[in-house]
Design brief:
Four copies of one chain form a homotetramer. Helix content of chain A is 49%, strand content 15%. By secondary structure, chain A is α/β, with parallel strands linked by helices. In chain A, strand 1, helix 1 and strand 2 form a beta-alpha-beta unit. The longest helix of chain A is centred in the N-terminal third of the chain and has 25 residues. Chain A is globular. The two termini of chain A are 41 Å apart. At the A-B interface, helix 8, helix 10, helix 12, helix 15 and helix 16 of A face helix 8, helix 10, helix 12, helix 15 and helix 16 of B.
Chain lengths: 453, 453, 453, 453
């Protein structure tokens, strides 16, 4: 990108999040190569109090780091976006209370209740898409050259929407791939930069087809570990995919998985675990709320001027690292490999041209150039294609603001195999998230019938 | 095809089936245009007694019809196939006892137990593929110009195997599409030939994208009937897809379904119904066994020389009509539209080129020329693609004779979402169908790891 | 299509053409199955005199045939199109004088000068596309359910434009395929309806991949004739492709060609022949003008009330037959195979989805359902793809009204391999066809640079 | 790749070439990072004398550079290939005498006579493919982990053959792309490493879709220079594509060209120039022979121990740099962008999956990972596709050893538009290159007819 010598304006949408100090820390650590001049922390009025806590804490962190960066807490979206060089999207429409409902409702019907996959993730996407479209209209007008780095979940669907229905330059990002690579490095006790991994698929649905150590393939050695690893190594192996698969499964697959595949391949145990947890603790959202409450107590403590260790319990490890490294790679035209969510354009030859996929790409001043993957591994091609169709239907439902389309996407969600249950959940989500999903309830009587071809 | 003036040799594999009289009836009814000279009824030694009953009955039918057709019951596959013009495959590897196990085992794990779809259908495919490959080797050698009309289920998978791994000219056939068209004609009280329907998808996974009456589209009128039809019309409407969907579902879909979609979209009710039936009557296979026992009593009665009405209870309505009409269209180069299972070759542009699909095709002396469909309707594209991948993995498992591949296909079956349950069922099927699936159990220790791309 | 019992309104654009009596003859011969009520002959003011001759002659023909069809000569496009059931497009923008220029200009530069292919055909397309787009706007408004049967050349490009940039239901038609089939029937001395031929490619760029007699493939026998045929049979063989290829060429190709392949594969001899003819007789257009003059003398003769034999010299044999048979097949939902120009939609899997191709299709009330072709024969795939790209660029130039795009298409024409000559010809065409191509000359200074991807 | 600590064995096929000192120079300059232990210079007996001159000179160069590399001149292919880490293919089947014939024969028929494109390049490919297939059999056996870097021309076709019909790991390389980038850097007077360029297409048929300086797109600025550059800048601009296009052409194209596009877009002037040159100096091959004679005089001079400046006149600038940098990037897992010829696998979504294309790729220990291109720019898509089909037919002709297939490829060459001329040239090449093309002349009488689909 063009460097005008004035430094960079970064805008964080959802700036009052408990994650923000992580991000601030990342920016401060790169201050020698990444001259951030202004950091705008944008939030909504409901979040004003948290925002002021975060902004004050960020100010202390900057001071401690000896940085001249200016922090702007703001409730004014247009001011925050105007002239931004990078926009980071990390907001959560409906908040943790909304998440709690997303997690709880499917469980009532014996279906995985999860923040980003399954019906819960779908409801979250439906709340978020109209908001991100509005934001993108502003970016198109006020900072058309900005790069939007999207972390907002479900990141695959949201980025699918942005890249197909707006003119904004965007890259979707997840901390999953970097976490997996770090876990492999930790397992092998080598420096993280010596490890590379090839991801094939979609956000929260990507498989690791190969892993290299210093450029040499070690995927088979890793697969062997599922049989051989013992003791501490076994614990570390579990961190790679967050599940310790049976060796025969991982061998038959011939690939590593990501953190969400347990909901697809180990559905029964996961459902049982969720039900058990829910009975004991309520939804995961409630647990997170408690962690957040404690974090904000820390943030508000004026003696604290560094990222607290407790932040790591929050989840989202390496979130800041992934985002700031990506910004750095673009700003400084580094041509580094990052794992990102971008338009397919043939990268995976058996997914639609315009689908958003999660893939390794070379990141430089011109954005992301994906590295070609070719055809998907046959054993997972069907599932990946199925999930992608669901995601595209989800986006279309939000674009068309159509109840019927929303229902069609719900029925196409891989966790749902029953149209009556789909409708029941759909109606329940619309009621539970009032008024955020009203745009679907109010969908006109027009009932599309014959499908166009 | 070439007419040598000597008449046609038709060979029925599984000739001792209770269906055969239906087929004989169909052939006899077309005797003026379809000069069948020899009808070979081939079966295995275990079926010899049934075969002799059927052959004798078929002889009486032919005599009654005044036909000179010669009936050859045979246990000699090579003799039966040599020089055949048409080979009809309707055999069932493992018989109804095998089917009973296919239906029962999944139910133990809370999964749909069904003869052609789900894990049950998969086990059936794994038993059948090695046998059909053997038969095809014989056809390649002994009757290379023959047309193989495959009814053996799961017809989609079996035809996928034949057309991709043998050199036999084959067309897969199902009585589903013709039954749906007849049901629509009955519903509208019009002659069946005035109705046409466009099927999109796979065997037991095809949707009706359009229906015409005298060439005019009436799909929207049919969809409206889900709301409006009452009384007897309502009963008739149910026969179209064998399920009376909620109007909102069928409207949102914009298409009609086939008889197996209830297992995908109405899974909970179907599972409950299966469990209930199983508790009361055992599996559907047992019910069919009883029907068959009675049929064979009738067939054995030397005073009976016409197809008995009871045959219709057996299921498989219009089976004979579909098969004999297809043979007639090829033999007489009729260029008629039939719904068949053939290689895709671009017919559905978003399925693999070599996939076997169920589609309308023009049938003439050169075989089947599919009518172009274009892209699949988005709402069902994901599911269809998912099922097709499973089917291709199933065929590959049989071709590779590999336990690992067999497991991968089982995990990819849309009814299975749990790898541990998949393995348990896989092992149980192998044990239950001994020795028919031993070729998988004996699969070498060689464990494929890195997936080739 | 829906039959309202009132009979059919057919509108002929370019009704004053010398071809029209052929068409009237065809309609009258089908009067028992095709109840044409009104035949509107539309033309432009410059053609008024010819139009009145044709209309009067058509009236005498109808009277002689005992038909009650009403003939409406008209200069009022909107009146002629309003409520039409079928619109036949056979007009020629710029007339024969324009054609003469199309044929002469390329010859100046040593390039094939031809009415429909090469730079001449391109100039013709550029004159025609804006006019057909205007007509289509009227059809969209005044007769949205009409079928537009397009004969206007270059039919491939014009139909490409209509089907991709308007909402009109259209089918492109050429007399080439039917002529080839008739020639094969004549060669073999069999009834034409016993012959079928599979055409693969584009209008004026389609190859005959197979020919059947009574459903049996005879392509190899036909290829053998290039070696064996003698005397009269040799003359008849020549009529199949209008060129008697060397046997080794047709064997290596393994297919038959159409009438325009001589300009691609036998370019040197054709150029020489064109140059020689031009020296002696001027362009082909001038020869046709003289034939037309004589035809109109005949048409004006009030004693003539039947299609005169001289019409056959005009070229365009079977034009009427192809068009009227197509209308009949649609109107009466005949489900017959015709060779037509329609959207690809996967019919040829290695051409773009939206490309217009020339292919066999089943024609019925719903229009054309192409029969799947699969991948193109490798030996001609490159050339066909190259021509299709040129055609798409040609349409785009007319849509964008852009001089630069027009130049890009000219450079991409397979007969042009020199960008300077391309520009010289482009400018000469614009000047020669004033004011019909002014829309390109007036293209704004805006120069597109970086090609979008 | 694995580093065994023993250093690298590099084998140069055609080691007696006048280019070799350039290569040796490149290897010596990287000696700190690229530990080449053995350099085998392989040649055929006819080249033994030249080989000994080169080997001796290479030895002096190594000594001067203080390198311990061992030089092995060899006529024993198996010894030279055994255990090689990198194999460089730079041999020329038929030598410069063969090239002279390739250049002269087409000119007799008014067709571009060129070493790598057109009929001349085709004859060269037909001579080379059987030899490279033989070499690859040896590599498969003797050094299966070796990387074959192919420079042998026509590099696109040869690499197409290697990657589709052998199991060798190969990358095709051309000095064109690096030369263009260097010329742009020289034009802008910046360091070469600040320039990047995106190449789209095939070897000798790739277009430059974008150029960046420090990551910022400057393609439009470069296009503007075609109008604005004057004096010395104008001379430097010419070096970018070796032709100074009219500004309107390059603007309409919106891309830069490579050195061979003049034969496609400026064919008339090039043909005239070739004819003129041929009249005056004989073919380019003869000029090169004279340059080579002088070079070998220098190489034989025992006082010379450094690459002589005269080598640059030979053409092939940056050849050594491209090759050695590529080897370095693989050996040291550098993940650098190089422009290489590799399997498409979806990189260009509208070319066949298995086609070899010329593209930017990330080069590391695992070889080449192409950067996704997406659809080709429409204005050149047809031409690129046409050339690729010709290339695939060319390879198939050599694989099938079929005269008919060879003829089909010749007819499909974009410079040939006349089947009779194609055959005349084909036969003349076979006679002129005796016995190298005898394998086509001796092709059996078997004439393939119906094209398989």
């Amino acid at each position: 990108m063009e460097h005008d010598g004035k430094g960079i304006k970064v805008t964080v949408i959802g700036g009052g999040s408990s994650y923000t100090p992580e991000l601030v820390d990342g920016i401060l650590r790169r201050k020698d190569t990444l001259p951030v001049r202004e950091l705008w922390l944008l939030d909504i009025p409901e979040g004003e109090k948290k925002l002021s806590v975060i902004a004050a804490f960020a100010g202390r962190m900057a001071k401690k780091a000896g940085s001249g960066i200016r922090i702007y807490p703001s409730l004014d979206r247009r001011a925050a976006l105007e002239g931004a060089d990078f926009v980071l999207s990390q907001f959560r429409v409906g908040g943790l209370a909304g998440r709690a409902r997303d997690e709880a409702i499917p469980l009532k019907y014996g279906i995985i209740g999860q923040e980003t996959t399954g019906p819960g993730g779908y409801a979250y996407a439906l709340r978020t898409l109209p908001v991100i479209f509005d934001i993108c209209r502003d970016i198109e007008e006020l900072s058309p050259r900005a790069w939007l780095i999207n972390f907002t979940n479900p990141a695959g669907i949201i980025t699918e929407g942005i890249l197909n229905y707006t003119g904004v330059r965007a890259i979707g990002l997840c901390n999953g791939p970097i976490t997996t690579k770090r876990a492999i490095a930790a397992l092998l006790e080598v420096e993280p930069q010596r490890i590379n991994a090839e991801f094939v698929g979609l956000n929260h649905m990507s498989f690791v087809r190969d892993v290299t150590l210093d450029g040499k393939s070690i995927i088979n050695d890793l697969i062997d570990l599922y049989e051989k690893a013992e003791g501490e190594a076994r614990e570390k192996l579990k961190l790679v995919s967050d599940v310790l698969w049976d060796p025969w499964f991982i061998r038959s697959l011939g690939m590593l998985t990501n953190f969400y595949h347990r909901y697809y391949f180990k559905c029964r145990a996961m459902l049982k675990e969720q039900e058990e947890n829910y009975r004991q603790n309520g939804s995961r959202a409630l647990v997170v709320q408690e962690i957040e409450r404690k974090l904000f107590e820390l943030y508000a403590d004026k003696s604290v001027d560094e990222k607290p260790a407790e932040l790591e319990q929050r989840g989202g490890a390496y979130y800041s690292e992934a985002a700031v490294a990506l910004i750095d790679a673009i700003y400084n035209d580094r041509n580094e490999i990052h794992t990102v969510n971008v338009l397919n354009r043939g990268t995976i030859s058996d997914l639609p041209y315009n689908a958003v996929i999660e893939t390794n790409a070379l990141i430089g001043a011109a954005g992301a150039s994906p590295l070609v993957i070719g055809k998907m591994p046959e054993k997972v091609a069907g599932l990946i294609g199925y999930v992608k169709t669901y995601e595209q239907l989800a986006v279309k439902a939000a674009v068309n603001r159509s109840y019927d389309d929303a229902l069609a996407a719900m029925i196409s969600n891989p966790f749902v195999n029953d149209y009556e249950t789909a409708k029941t959940m759909m109606d329940e989500f619309i009621a539970a998230h009032k008024p955020l999903l009203d745009y679907l309830a109010k969908s006109p009587g027009r009932i599309p019938r014959r499908i166009e071809t």
